[in-house]
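Good morning C.,

I know you're traveling, so I'll keep this short. The sequence:
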Amino acid sequence: MVSESWLRELKSRPGVAGATALDTLTIDIVAVLFDYLFEDSNIPSALKAQFGRLQIPILKVALLDKTFFSNKQHPARALLDQMGDFAIGSAEAGKVVEFLTGLVTQVQAEFEANTEVFSRSLTQLEIFRASWVAQESRVCAAGAKAILEAERRETAGFIATKTISIFIAESAASETVAEVLTSYWQPLLADLAFAEEEESARWTQLMGIARDLQWSLAPKTKAEDREKLVKLLPTLVRSVVSVMRDAQASNDALRGFLDYLVACHAAAVKRDEIPVAPKAKLRLVTTPEVLGEPLLGPANGSFDFVANLAQPSSSTRDRQGVSISRGTWVEFQTAGMTKRGKLTWVSPKKGIYLFTNPEHAEPVSISPEDLASWIKQGRARVLDDKPLFERAVASALSTVH
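The tokens, ready to paste straight into the viewer:
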């Protein structure tokens, strides 16, 4: 591999020391250009080595064609830009490094005086890009589908929570019954709301059982009410058992609530005060919220919403968020690894950012607020995605006097 200092050593070699002032300036600019590339934190080390192998061909082009620096469509310059584009999302090893290594080998072997090899390499790069974009689209589609589903589930959970909360408040349900309704009725209602079945027979049935349950627990002062309760109990108990089993209640929780119902119904008939069941037998482990946490997840649509990107504490979150445009690259630091992704999709409902990278299958999803917090903590940074040559030449021209 050509060393980083090769172009600077070149000026002192016999035959070059007597070069024209313009050629000497060209060598200086190309040298500074490659210095910039070698120092660019956006470029993985494996690809810096490949850029280094292009020093001689690029210098030859710059000396032979004085439009190299000014012509943005120059094939050699375009090749550098396209390689830089891929470098932002590339890992130290993978398909990108493998492909670009072959491309550079081709340029080294074939370039003499005309730029045809750069044009051919660009065509090959565009073909490679087409397959890359197709893979990116697949990853993005799967990630977007998962986020939209998560947002729908969150909305469904809100509808179910609101429904049960209103019922508990309006019916003056006891603390024990309220806990049972929240733990077992609410998840089933959320599933129905997710399926957009709030008007379904099942929804009506669940709420009807809840109303019958609450009515059955009130003291019965009239004989006809006591008679009605006796007739209702077998069906009611079967319905309650069915609902709790559908909601994955444990056997202990089910037995505990049935024992509570026996005591309550006996008290209702006797017009006594309703007992309170031991809460430990009824408590259900609360499921975590679906959204609100940055995540890493596979591209098959099955996301782990409490995965490797840990949620920043609320005290460090910037509620203003970060506003960035599609196509922006961001680097994340988490669990001892670096992960880069390009913003390819924003959820229309909650504005969740989806970052994808065809180099790996796992997209990153994060809210604008959490991204702002990560950037403040130094755990994420927005990458400079201006064309590589433009950045390098700007640096070179600011350095060469």
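Safe travels,
E.
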